[in-house]
Amino acid sequence: MSGKRVQRLARRFGYLEYMIERYLTLFGEEAEAFLEGNDRHIPKTIRCNTLAIEPQLLGKRLEMKGFDLEVVQGIDYAFRMTSGEFPLGATTEYLLGYYFVQSQASMWAVEVLNPKGSEVVVDMCAAPGGKTTHIAQLMENSGALLATDISRKRMRGLRSNLSRMRVENVLALRVDAAHLPETGIQADKVLLDAPCTGEGLIPLQPERKRSRTLKDVETMAAVQRKLIVVASKILKEDGTLVYSTCSFAPEENEEIVNFALQNCPLRVVDTGLVFGDPGIRAPFGRVMDDSVLNARRFYPYKHKMEGFFICKLEKITA
Amino acid sequence: MQTGKDHRLTFDSASPLDLKKIIEGLEQFIDSEDIELLLKDKHILIGHGRRLEVYLLSKSLWSLYKSLREWRHPYFIGIFLGEIRGKILKPSLHICHRLSAETVDNAVVATPKGEQQFLYGKNLESNHLLKLPKDNVNSEVLVMNQRGEVLGYGILEKESRGKIKLRNRKDLGWYLRRGG
After folding, report:
1. Nearest chain A alpha carbon to B96
2. Phi, psi torsion values for A175, nearest 5 degrees
3. Is A246 a catalytic residue?
4. Which residue range is the domain that position B113 belongs to?
5. pLDDT of residue B95
């Protein structure tokens, strides 16, 4: 790899050089398209709260207020906002809990989890509640949903969002997820949207081009390894775990899944998604289990949403 | 709604006195049939913190709560019904969400301009009120928009010149101003 090319791209797109080197290794000839994609605007998306209003009615009401919306393909209760005159978080409809401003990629993580009202579900890193309120919506406010987070400040947002979105089936605990097995819970489904370096959010927060080091990736990966072991422990046999991040880094994605396959009674299963790139099997020359190909990666330049990784796993019967 | 750094609650089942305060608080806005429906098959927990917070739990959530061994200090659980202050329950915004024009007969209707003012946390003058319930001066009333959606509640007051004014007590704009 030419050092000059790395420097040139780092200057042109404003990244730290180590990141460019990694993107050139991972994406080869598509690296420049990838970098250009990270500089393009990603339209905001909202999820209609079907616990409170029909999507068609919400769409009409927001259009009357000057928003241009289109339905997100595959999620008929979600809208992409193509234009609008004032903030989506400042309407009466927002305050009434009729919608949540939520990224499309994170909606797919919950769709892959496919929670049901008869189940016990755990959302491990829940605050401020975008995915928690989405899970509750798909459970139709039935069953039981344990939502945990360690951050005091973020729990405040979670509580407010649960109330605004009319969620009634959540028990929210402020706890270090490492302690979850001590609660004795055995869940049918677990969502682990793990804390991560957030590279996938670069289109929304360009400062991330220069704010994370490789050391940060390693630090987050250590946290993610701990959390996925916990997720496996609190899952019933045959239960479903969805692991997701908003990072491009294989160390936070395929390598965590590979670690889980080696250390926990889990297997990777198909996400059921018909789009997205497959997981990377041999990132930086490190060969993973073949099944990581079943994971799905989303890139701004290809999929017009922020960067995201989703992998679905099942707990193997002992 | 209580939030912030002191939010740690210890939970107990509701006592008969708690239940009386809860029902009296709800009766300000909802008729007894609808209260019965709201409480049906639910467990009521009282969270003791800086204030007394009232939560309703479905059977599934109650079962989860009981199964959590010593981890029985949830930050939030089920339906937050409101806070008991003094002799009565002060209903939460969540309860406002569950009410509608069909279930409520003690409500004022705000004009579109009044709706915006109220959601900014402001009081409403009589020119922003389209419909007033009879004989409700100095009592709490729900505030609705013209679509019949509940925006919060307040107290109707008669000013010195006989004009009616609505004093804002709780409105959905809280979610933006303080919700976090």
Report:
1. A96
2. -155, 150
3. yes
4. 102-177
5. 86
CB-based contact (8 Å) between B77 and chain A? yes
Length of chain B: 180
Grade residue B7 by pLDDT with cuts at 50, 70 and 90.
low
Question: Is residue A208 within 8 Å of residue A198, measured between CB atoms?
Answer: yes
**Cβ distance of A164 and B179 shorter than 8 Å:** yes
Looking at A48, A125, A196, A246, which residue is catalytic?
Answer: A246
The one-character DSSP state at B14 is P
* Structural domains of chain A sorted by starting position, each given as residue range(s) with its CATH number in brackets: 3-36 (no CATH), 104-315 (3.40.50.150)
Residue carrying the six token digits 């479903």? A240
Q: Which of A95, A156, A184 is facing B69, going by the closest CB pair?
A: A184
Q: Is residue B62 part of a domain?
A: yes
The one-letter amino acid code at A43 reads P
| B109 pLDDT more than 50 | yes
pLDDT in tens, B19-71: 999 999 888 888 888 889 889 999 999 999 888 999 999 999 999 999 987 77
Residue A211: closest CA among A26, A25, A19: A19
In a domain, B4, yes or no: no
